[in-house]
User: Fold these one by one.
Assistant:
Number 1:
Amino acid sequence: MNFFEFLYSRREDMLTLGLEHIAVVAVSVFFATVIAVAVGVVTYRLERPREIALTVASTFLTIPSFALFILLISPLGLGAKPVVVALTVYGLLPILRNTITGLREVDPAVVESAMGMGMSRRQTLVRIELPLAWPVIITGVRVTTLILVGIATIGAIVLGPGYGDLIFTGLSRVGTPVAVNLTLAGIVGVIIVAILFDIAFNILRTLTTSRGLR
Amino acid sequence: MTTAETGQQRRIMIELDALSKEFPGQEKPAVDGLSLEVPEGEIVILVGPSGCGKTTTMKMINRIIEPTSGRIILDGEDVTKANPDHLRRRIGYVIQQIGLFPHMTIAENIATVPKLLGWDKARISARIDELLETVNMPSSQYRDRYPKELSGGQRQRIGVARAMSGDPDVMLMDEPFGAVDPITRDRLQNEFLRLQSEFRKTIVFVTHDIDEAIKMGDRIAILQEGSRIAQYDTPEQILTAPANDFVADFIGSGASLKRLNLSRVADLELTQWATARVGTDREEALETLRRSDHGALLVLDQNGRPRRWVSAADLSRSDGQPLDRIGMEPEAVVEPRATLSDALNELITASYSVVVVVDQEGVYQGIVDIDQINESIRTMRSNAVARAREGLASDRGAGEVGSVSE
C-alpha cells in the first residue's frame, strides 16, 4: 500500500482528526487573543507592567511543551482541556507583543486630536487606537495560530484531539511499514490545517482592515 | 502690558486667570501665572520663540494639558474642573499634524464630534455636506475618500472642517498651516480669513511666525519664556509701538513692510484701466488705447475675465490676429481679500508695475499699481507714528499735552 492509498483508506479518520485539530487550535487562539489583547491594552502605556507582561509571556514559551502537557494532567485530566490551556499559554507572546507594538505605533497626533475632540479614554481606545493597531495585532494572531497548529500535535500524549494521534501512533509502531505512513499522514494533515488557517487569516485581515489603512 | 483700546467693548469669551503649568522635573514653570482675556469673535494669536510656553498655554484651554494652578473661564463659566470630554466637544481643535483618522472616510472624520454630541443621522449628513462645501471640496467627490487620498492642503481643510463640525464657539489652532508649502499656506490662510469673516468664531491661534500672526490676528499676544506676556495688542499697535526690546527684536526689521499684511486690496480704491473685449477689432482697440493715458490695454473675455495685456506695438504688429492671441498673459492677478503684501509679491514676481484685481469668479474689478501700494505704506506709517505719539502723550499725564488729531 503506497502513501496515497493509505491516505485514501483513512480518509474519514483524516477528516475527523482535521476538524478536531482546527477546533482545538481555534479555541486556544481565541482565548490567547482575548487575554493577550486585554493585557496589551492595560499595559502598553506603562513601562514596568509592559516589560513584566512581555517577560512572563516569553518565559511561557521556554517551557518544554511535553513537560507542560504532563504537568496539566493532574489538575485537568486527559483530553482537550489540558491541550487548550497549554496552547493558550504558548500563544500569548506573539499577540501580546504585536498588540503593544501596534498600539504604541499609533500616531500621537491622531490620538491627541481624538482627545481634543472630546473622545473619552475608552472611546479613543475602541474607535481610534485599536482599529489602527488592528493590522499589526491580527498579524500576531496569525503567527500564534501557525505556532499552535504545530504544538497541538504534541497534545496527543495527553490524548488531546488532532493529527498528533497519527504521529504518536506511528511512533509506537516504529519499524513497521505503517509507521512511516501514519507519521507522514499526520504531517500532511498539519500542513493542510496550517494553510487553511493562513488563507482564512488573509481573508479576515482584508475584511477587517479599513480601506484607508491598506 | 498694554491693551488695545477698542471702540466697542466686546464680550470676553475666554478668560485665563493666573494660569500656571509646572512639569515634573523642570526647574522653571512652562507657563507662569498667565492672565489673558480673549474677546468674542476675534482671532487671538499666541506668538513667541520656541519653548516660550505658547502651545502649553493653548492646550490648557481645552485641558489636553491640565493646569497646575489658575482658572479657565469659558463664556462666563469656570471650566477648570468641568468634565474635560464635554468641554472639548464645545471647542474646535486643529493641530499642525492635523491628526485625521486614517481608517475613517472624510465624512466619518467630520462626523466625529456631531456623533459624540448625539446628533441624528440626517443632521450629521447635512452638516458634512455643508462643511465640505464651505472648504471648497465638493461633497460628492470627497465624502467617501480616505485621508491618504488627499493632498496636504486638502487634509488641512478637512482638519478645519472637522474642528468646526460641532459648530463650536471657540476654536484652538496650533500652527494649523505650518506643515504645508508656502503657496498653499498663503491660500489656506486667505480661505480661513474668509470663513472667519462669515462665522466669527473666537479663535486662539498659536504660531512662531510673526508674519502669520500679523496677517491672521485681530490681536497678538507676544509671549516670552514662561508664557509671560511681553505685549498684548492689535497687530497695528505692535508694529507701531513695540512695548519693549523683546517685542522689537521679535518683530525684527522691516516693521513698515510687515504692515502691508494688515491692509487688503479691498481697502484701496481701485484704478480703472483701459479695457477691450476679445472680439473688438484693431482700430477700435487702438482708439481706446489712444484716448487713455495707459501704455497697454487689458483684454477681457466674454465673461469679463482678464485674458491679455496688449500694447500699441502689439496691436500694430498683430496682422489681423484676434486680441486674445497677441500681447502678454496677465500673471499678476489677485482677489480683493489679498493683502497688500500679496499684491506686492505678485508685482515683483511678474515684473509688472500693476496687478489686476478680480472677484471670486475671476471677473475684472480694477487695477492696483505700485504707487498706490507705496502711498498706503506712507499713510499707514504716518498714522501709526501719530498714534504712537498720542500714546506717548497720554502716558505723561492729563492736561499737559493736547490730543493729537489725525
Note: The CA atoms of residues 161 and 186 of chain A lie 12 Å apart.
Number 2:
Amino acid sequence: MELLTEMRWSPYAVGIGIGILSWFSFLISREPISCSTSFARISGAIERLFRGKKVELKPYYQEIKLVVDWQGMLVLGIVIGSLISALLSGDFHWQWVPSLWATTFGNSQVLRVIVALLGGVFLGFGARWAGGCTSGHGISGTLQLAVSSWISAICFFIGGILTTQLLFKVIG
Amino acid sequence: MQTKYAENKSKKDKSHLIWGLVFGILFGFLLQKGGATKYDVIIGQLLLSDFTVLKIMLSAVLTGMIGIYLMKTLGWVELYPKSGSMGSNSIGGLIFGVGFAVLGYCPGTIAGAIGNGYLDALVGGLAGILIGTGIFAALYPRLKSGILKKGDFGKLTLPQLFKVNDWIVVVPVAVLIFLLLIWLEHVGL
C-alpha cells in the first residue's frame, strides 16, 4: 500500500502501466485511449445551451455527435484518478502559477491565466485540425503504427519544442 | 414499446460508459504518479531538460504496441488507426505544438492537472481549449474538403504503407524505442 502513497513513480513503470491499460481498452471496450474529441463535444454542448438545437446541425457536430460517450467518461475519470493519486500522496494543492513559469515570467496569476487561455485556444484548434492529441495520436495511434499518428506526434513535439525555446530563451 | 433488445443495448451502453470511467481513473492515476499532470514536467520536456514525458510515452508505446499487435495476430482485437492527411496531421500537429508549449498541458494531462488542483489549467487552459475547438467547428465546413484533405492517405498503418507483415515493422520499432530509452539513461537525461 505504500506504493499508492508515493509521490512519484518511475516513468517506465507509469509508461508500462499505460501500455497495459491500452491492451485492456482494446480488448474490453474496443476503444483506443484518446481525449481531445470530448473537449470539442463539451464546447458544442455549451454552445447548444445558449443557441439551442440548431448547433447540432453544424457539419462538425454531425460528425462527432454531442453525446456523453466512452471517451467523455474517460476524461472525467482522468480528473478523478489524478485527484485520488494526488490526495493519497499529499501532492494535491491549489496552484495558479507553476514554479517554472514563475521563475521566468513572474508570479502574476492574471498573466498566467491569460497565456494559458491563449495556449488552450491553439491546443484545442490544433487537436481538431490534426484529428487527435498527445494521447489519441501520441500514444494510442503511434502504438498502432498509424501513419497519421506518427506524423502528428512528431509535429506536436517540433511545434512544442520550437515554441518553448522562443518563450523561455528569447522572450523570457 | 421498449423491446428486450433495446433494454439490453442500453445496459450494454451503460457498462461501456462505466468501463470508460474506470480506464480514465487508472489513466489519470498513472499520469499523476508519473508527474505528467504538472506544467514544470511537461515544459521541462519541451525545454529538453527533463525527459520524463518522453520516457512515459515511449515505454507506453513499446508495451502497448507489442501487446496489441500480438492480440491482433491472435485475432483477439482489431486496430483503429485514425485516418489522416499531410495537410491535417502536419499543420494541425504544429498548431497543437504551439498550444502545447504556451499552455504547458495537453488535452489528457489538463484533465489530470485539474484533478491535481491546478487552477491555471481549469480557469485558463480548459476555457481556451473549448474556445479553440469551437472555432474549429465553425471553420470546419471551409477546411474539410480543402487543406484537411491535402495529401490524404486514409486509415493507413506503417506495415500497410510498406506492404509488409506487421512484425517486420513492430520488431525494429520496438528495438529502436528500447535503444533510445537505454541511451537516454546512459547520457543521464
Note: The mean pLDDT of chain B is 95.
Number 3:
Amino acid sequence: MNMMTIKEDKDINISSKIKNFLNPDYVYIPIPNNYKICVNTNDDIYKEDILLSSNIDNIYSPVSGKIIGESDNLTVFNNNVKCLVIENNYEEKLRNNRPATKYINKYKKDEFLDLITKYKACNEDFTSNYKTILINGIDPDPYEKTRSFIIDAYSDKLLETVDAIRTIFNINNTYLCINNNDTNNVINLSSNIGTYPNIKLKLMPDIYPLGFREILIKNALSKREINDGVLVINIEDIYNIYNVLKRKKPISEKLVTISGDVIEQPLVVNAKIGTSMADIIKNTCKVTDDKYYVIVNGLISGITLNSLNSIYTNDIRSIFLNTKDESRESECINCGLCNEKCPMHLNPKYLITHKKADRSKCIHCGLCTYLCPAKINFKKYLGGKDEQ
Amino acid sequence: MNNNVYVRSNGSIKTISLTRIAFLLPLIIYGIYKNGIYLYKEGYTNLFGLFKPIILIILGAFIGGLVNIIYEYVIKKRKDKLINVLFSSFHIEWGIILACISSINTNILIFSIITFIILFLSKLFKIHFNIMSIIFILIYIFHIILYNSYSYLNVYEQSKELSLSFMDYLIGRGPGGIACSHIILLLIAIIGLYFTNNNKTNITISSILTLIILFTLLSIFKGISISGLLFDNNYLFIMTFVATDSYTSCYTVPGEIIYGILVGILTFIFYFVNPIIAPYIGITIVSLFNIVIDKKANLLIKN
C-alpha cells in the first residue's frame, strides 16, 4: 500500500464535544444557474421552505426569518456567487410538522430515488447495478474529525439507514469502513452492529489518504467485489439520507471541523448551511494570530480561500486557519519519493514536467507535496480540486 | 494562491544527508582506527598520520559546507539560517563520501583543491553527471601524474604480503578507501538506509548483484578469489553511496534497477582497464543517461 502515517501536529487536539452554532444573524443561499427563485424580498419564510427550485430538485431554507434581498459579494470556493440573504428570526418555525416514517426500509426503490434527488441528500448514482455497498466513515484529511464525530453522534441512525439502503436495493454485501484508531466509534459500532447482521464493520489502518474514495475501494474490497460494482457513500450523506427518509428533512445544518495552528481550541461545530465562515469562526473559537490563511477540506489536500468572506456549504468538511509552511522550494533532488509513494501509482515528477501528460488519474491527495524533501509544491503544478 | 501547502513531512535534504552521514559514522570511526590510530600505535606513522583520516573527513565536510555558504550567502545573497544553508544541497555529504572513498595516501592539497573547484562548479552549473565520480577520477589522475601511483594500501598493508580470507574482508582487514573496508558495517548501513528510506537501494542491490554474477564467472574462468575482486576496490561502498547519488541517478523502480545493472556491467568492463576508477567511469557514463533510462525503462514495463 502506497500510503503514509501522517504525524499529527500535537498542537491540534480537537475538543471532544460538538459545539452548536445554529443561530446566525443571516444566512446566505447561493443562487445556482437554472434555478428559479421562489420567494420575494421581505417575504417571511419558514424553516425548510423552498427558496429555489429547478426541474430536478429544490433548495430549502435552513432557518425561519425574512428575505432581505440578494447579495453578490460573497464567495463559494473562491468564486463570486449571487446569494439570497435571509435574516434569521431565531424561531426555527416550520410551516408544517412532517410526521416521521417509522420504517425507513419500507420505501420502494423509485420512492427512495425521488426523495434523494428532490432533497439533494446524496450525489451518488443509485441507478446502476451494484453488488456491494461501501460506507466511507474515514476522514479524508488526518486533521479532520468530522466523519468520526458524525459516527459518534448518530451511530444508531446511520446503521438503520445503511440497512435500509441495503434492503431497498437488495444488496447483501455491505461494509462500513472506519479508522481503527477511532476507539470510541469502534466500541460504539461494535456493540450496535449486532442488530444488523448484514452490515460488516471494516477497521482500516490510520494511514493517509485512505479516506479518499478511490483508495478506500482498492484497499477495502477484493478485485471481484470491485468488478461486480460498488456503491460508495460517505457517512455524512448517509446521515442526510436518514433525515430525508425519516422526516423528509432537507440538509439545513451539518458538522464541520474547525482547526489550524492559530485556533486556540480546535473543535467540531454543528453549523447552519449558508452561514458565513467569518460568523462561524467569530462565534465558535478564538483566533490567536491575525496572520493566517483560510483552508477548506484539509491541510494536505484542501484549497486555500481568498478570505473568510465565504459561505459554508454542504461541500465543506473542515475549515482551517493556519500559517503557511514557509519552507523554500528547491530544485528537485530526484529522490523518487513522490513516485514511490503515490497512492494512484502515478509519477508526479513526470506529470509536472510534461505538459501533455495525463493528469486525470490524480486524486489531488497532496501526498507528494507533503513528502517532498525538496519542498516542491506539486499541488501548484497539478492543480487542485477547485480547478477540476 | 489556491494550492498552498500547510503541513509538510520533516523529511528534507538536511534529514536525508544527516541520516546517510549517521550510517557512515561507524565506517568512518573504523577507518580512523584502521588508517590512523592502529598505524600510529604500531609505529608505522607519525602524529600527522594519526590524524590524517580524520583531517580528510573533516576537510571533505568543510569544503562541502563552504561551497554552500559561498553560493547561498555571497552569490545568491540569501539570508537563511546557517544550518539551512549548510544543508541546502548534498555537498557536505558528498565531501564526506569523497574522503571516505579516497585512499589514506591521498595528498590533502590535491584533494582539497579538486573537491572545492568541482563542487563549486556543480553549484554554479546544472551538471548532469555524478559529481563524486568525476572528483575521484580527477584526484586519481592528478596522483598518477604527480606521483605515478595511487594505491589503497596503507603503510602497514604495503609492508606485508596480504593474504586475506573472506572473513578478513568482512571485518575490515582488506585494503580500500579511508572508510570503505569494513563490509559488515557497510551491510548494516545498507540495511539501515533501506529501512529509513534514505537510499536508492534498488540501485545498490542490482549493481552489486550484477558485479557478483560477473566476478563469479571471471573467478571461475581465471581461478582467482572472488573476495579480492569484489572487496579490494571499494565496489560495495561505491554502489551504496556514490552510485545512488540522488540528483544523477534514476528515480523510478525499473529505472533504478536498469541503472544499477548498467553500472555493474560497465564497472566490470572497465575493471580490465583500471580496477580503481572502473566503477567511477561506469557511474559517470550511466549517470549521463539517467533521464533516458527512467523513461525507457517505464515504457518497457508498460508495454
Note: Chain B touches chain A through 32 residues (CB under 8 Å).
Number 4:
Amino acid sequence: MSISPTPTPSRVADVLDRALELPPDKRAAFVRESAGGDSALVHEVSSLMRALAGAGAFLAPADAPVRPSDPLTGKVVGPYRVFEVIGEGGMGVVYRAEDSRLGRSVALKVLPHAMAADPIRRQRLEREARALGALSHPNIGAIYGLEDAPDANGPVLVLELVRGETLAARIARGAIGLEEAVGIACQIARALEAAHNAGVIHRDLKPSNIIMEDQGTVKVLDFGLARLTDQRDIEPHPPTTPASKSEGLSSRSRNQGPPLVTQDGLVVGTAAYMCPEQARGKTVDKRADLWAFGCVLFEMLAGSRAFPGETAPEVLDAVIAARVDWPALPDVTPPGVRRVLERCLRVNPETRLRDAGDARVELEESLAAPVPHGRPRWPLYAGSAAALVCFVGVGLLLNPRHPEPPPARSSSLVLPEGIVVAPSMSQPLRFTPDGETIYLSAGPRRGAGSLHRRRLDSFGFEKFDVEGVCIDPSPDGTRLAAWRRIEQGPGGSGGLTVFDAHTMKVIADGPTLLPYLGGMTWIDGERIVVSLDKGALKIWNVATGSVTTLSEDPTHYLTQPTPAPHGKGVFATRYVREPKGRSLSIDFIAVPSGERTEVMPDASCPRVLGDDILVFSRDAALWAARLDGTFTHVIGSPVRVLEGLPPPTDTIPYTVYDVSSRGALAYIPGTTTYLATTVAWVDDKGQPTTIADFQTPVWAVRLSRDGSRVAVITGEYGEQGDIRVVDTTTNRGVTVASLDEYVGLPLWTPDNAYVVFNTKRENDQVNQLWRVRADGSAPPELLRELPGGQWCDPTDVTPDGQDIVAAVFVGPGDVTDLFLIPIDPTKPMRKLLPTPGDRTNGRISPDGTILAWAGSASTDDRTEVFIQPYPALDKLVRVSENGGFRVSWAARGRRLAYRWGDSLSVVDIGPDLTVSRPLVDLQDLPDSRFDVSPDGTRYLMAVPAGGSKPANMIQLEEGFERRVREALKAANGG
Amino acid sequence: MSSPTEHPLNEAELAGVLGRITAGDTASMDVLFRAVYGELRAMAQHRLRYESPEITLQATALVHEAYLKLMPRRDGSWEGRGHLLAAAGEAMRRILVDHARGKVRDKRGGGASGEGTPRVRVELSNIGPLRDDAELVELDAALSRLAELDSTSARIVTMRFFAGMTEAEVATCLHISERTVRRHWTYARAWLARELRGDIAGNGAAE
C-alpha cells in the first residue's frame, strides 16, 4: 500500500456514507476497494465507523438495554402476593400478582421513586389514579388502585391483568388483513371514545400497549399513564402472558425496525406514534390520540410504521416533516380508510380528526361501501384460527354492504402528508390528453412546488425533481410543458421548458424572455401560446424556437389560455384592474389573426369539455355553457355545475381544476395558499368557523358596532392593502378601498357608516388618516395628514364620533402614547393622559365609560392591560396578570378581551372597575388582530386557510361530462 | 467569548435583513444572529426565572418559539425561514454552552450554586443523551474543531442539534442537496463521536 497524505473530509465523508448503506459485513471490503490503496483513507473511515458504532445512544442511537432489578418477586404488597416479572420498561417493572382478598390475578406496575417522594406529586398521583380507576370499558385495561411498596422503592399501580398478544407482536408477524385491521381499529376507537368522553387522554397509544385477548376483544392499556408519571418518552411495557407472546418489543423484523432510544437511553417505541405538537413539547389534547390511532391503523395495514426511520430522531424528523410512507399501504385499502388515515395524520391539530367516534363510523362505512372503480375486491382475511376468532368478535361492528353501486363516482386522491398543491394562478393541475394521468405542481406548505404525476390506475404520486408550475401536456401526450425554476431566490430566474413526459428530461428550453407566465397551452404539436405581462399572448414554436406575438395590449391581462377546439384559437381570462375593483371576462382569441371577442362576462378559468362546452369559474362555483361553432358565442343560458369551491382571490381568480377527454373533472377542494387568509369566528373552546376566505393575507379585522359587518385589511405582502367589508350573516363582501401602501386598522364610526383607517408611506414619514363609506359608494376621503415623521396607530373612534383614538409616536425607541385626533382637521390633536407613558391600543367601552389600553407595567418587556374611568381618567386598574396587548370590547355589556402571545383572555368589568376572574382563557391561537362578537362569546380573527381546508387532495368526479350535458339540457329545454 | 450585544429588530428590519441574506449578503448574518440571540436569551432567562426549579430546556422548542415570534409575517420565503432557524440554532448553541460553562465553573470552584440556581436538563434534537454539562462544553469545543476541518459539516450539526432543522430544511438553507446534507451529517456524527467518546479500538487513525 502506498502512503498518502491525510484524506480530505469530503472524500472520507463520501466513502463513509456509501459504506454505511451496505450491510455491516460488506463494509470493510467496500472501504478497501474504494480507497484504491490509500491506507490513510481506509484507516480514517474504519475509525469513524467504529466511533459511530461505539457511540451507543450518543449521536448514533442504538440498543441500550436496561436490566431492571427484581425486588418484589415473592414479596407481599398490601393484599397482593407478587409473582414473576412479566414486563419491564422505563416507567417501571411489571409483575404478575394475586389479590388475596378477591382471589383474582392482577398486574403490578412499579412507578419511579420520585413520584412518591414529593408529597404534592404523590397527591396528584393518587388523584389521577382515582380518576383513571373510574374508567370502565370493555376495551380499556382497568386500573384498580395505587399501593405503597417499600421494597419496590416506589409506589405500585394495580392494574387489570390482560392476557393475550400485543398488537406490536401481531404486526411483527406481518401486515393485518383489511377487515381484521379495521375491526381492531374500531375497538381501539371505542376505547378512545369512552376515555375522551370521561376527559382522559391516553397520550401514549401504540401497538405495544394494545392487547388482543384470545376471545378477540381488544384492550387498550395504560390510559393516561404517560401523564400520570410525567415521563412522556418512556415506554411502559404492557403486562402480557406468557412471556413468549410479548415478542413485539424486542422484535427486529423489518416491520418493526430497531427499538427507539430516548434521551434517557431507554428503549422506546413512542416516537413513532407521537404527534408533532407532542414532539415539540406543546400541550396536547385528544387529537394526539387520534394521531396515534392513525399511526396504529396504518401500521396494521402496511405492516410497517407510518413514519419510517431507524432512530428516534429520524422518526421524529419524519413526524415533524409529515413524511408518511403512503406507498406502503396496500393497494386494496379503500378510499374511506385512506381518508381516515389522512385526516388522523395531519400535522395541524386544528384540521385533524378530533373525534374517535367519527373515525369509527367512517371506518365501518368504508368497509360497507362498494369497492372503488376498477379495483379488485380486497381479499377476505383467511388467517389462523385465532385470527378468525378475532374477526368474529368484531364482525358485529360492520354494516352490511350496499348492494347497488353509487350513481356518480367520486374519489379523493390524497397528496402525501405535508404536501399541498402549489399556489399558482394558472394550471397547477392538468390531465393528460388520454385522461388517464394527472400532472400537478405540489410541495410543502411554505415551499416551492415540484412536478408530480398521478396515474389514475395506480396509487400514490410520483414526484419529479423539477421545481415548477404551470403545466400542460402536449396533445400527443409525449411531452410536458411547464414553467420551471432554474435559479433560486426571489427574483430568481426560470422559464418555460418542454420535458419528455416519460423521462422528464429537458427537450427544449423556452426563450429566456419568458420570465412571467400567466398560463400557457399547447395549440398543436409544435406551438405553445404563452400569457405574458403587458397583456401579451405570444406563440412559441418549440420546433423552430421562434416567438411571435398573437395579441398585445397593456390595458389588460390575457391569462389562463386554453385551446379552443380544432386549433381555431384560444380562450383566455381577460382581466382589467379598474379604479374600483376589476373586471373579468373570458374572451376568444383567434389564431393566427389575434382577433379578440368576449364570450362570457364575469368569468375566469376557461376549459373546454368535449368540443362544444365551455366550463368556467364564477363566484366560487364551476359553470358550463354551450359554445356555438364560431366559439365566440354561447347558446342558451349557462348552468352552475359545481358549488362550494374555495372562494376566489381578489386579483385574477383561479379555481384549480381540469376536465378530461373522458368526461371526468378533477379539482382541488381546499385552498391553495398558506398565509392567514381567512377570517373566522373562534368560539370559547378555540374552534374556528370560517366566514370568509380572501386568499390573500389578512392583516386586520374589526367588527362594526352592531356586529353585522366586518372590515378587513387584506393584500399581498403589506405593500398594498384592500379594505373589504364583509356581511357576517351572508359572508358577502365589497372592496371599499384599494391602496398601494401600508394600511392600518379599519375602524368603524359609531353610526357604522364609515370605516376610518390610516396609511404609512415612505418609511413612515408620510402618515395620513382617511375615511371611506362602508358600502364602498365613494372613494376614500383624506381626513388629515400628521406632521412629518409622526406616525400613529389608530385603534378606536370615540363614541361621539368626533375623535380617533391613536397611539402616536412620541419618542425614541418606538415609544407611543395615546392621543385623541379630531376627525375635523382644523382642531388640534391632544394627548389623552396627562402623565408620560408608553401606551398603545387604546379602546373606549361601547357605553363610553371606560378607557382600556396596553402599556408597560414594569421594566421587563411585557405589557399589561389597564382600564380607567372615561372621561374622568381619575383611577387606574390593572386587568391582565401575566401580560396583555391587543384589547377589544364586546358591543354589549362591559366585557373586555385581550391577547398576549398566543393566548386570549376575557373578563367582565363590574361597577367601580372591578375585574372578574377570566371567563375564557384560550391558548395556541394564531397571531392576529381580533375583535369580539356583540354578546362577547365569540372572537373574530385571521386564521390560516390551512385551518379550514388545506389543498392536500384532488377530488376526482367521473361522469362529470354526462352530468353537465344533462344539466344544460334541463336548463335550456333540450 | 463575550456575549453578543442585543440588537432588537422590528419586523420590517428583520424582513430586510432576511432579504439581504437571501440575496447573498453574508455580513447581514451577523446582524441577524445578534437579534435572534437577544430574543432567545430573554426567552431562556424567562424560563429559568418563572418555571419550576428543576426544568428541562427543550432547545428545539425554544428555537421554534423564537422563530415564530420573530419571523416576519410578510416574508413567506422558505429561505428566509431557513436563515432565521439557522441563526437561532447558532444562538441557542451559544446560550446553552455559556450556561453549561457557568455551571461547570461553579462545580469546579465549589462556588455558590445552591438554591436559586435551577437544575437545567438540556434536550437537543437529533442527538442522544448528553452525560452532563461538561459534555455539552466538550461538544461545543469539538464542533469548533470540526468547523476548521469542514465548516459545512459543523454548520449542519449546529442546525440539526440546536435548531432541530430537518435535512430538507438544512438543504434549502445551504443550497445543497439533501443527499449532500446527509453525507456531511453522517461524517460529522462519526467524527464528533470519536472526538468525544474516543475510537473504541483505542488507537484511531486520527491520533
Note: Confidence is low (pLDDT under 50) at residues 1-6, 51-55, 106-118, 200-207 of chain B.
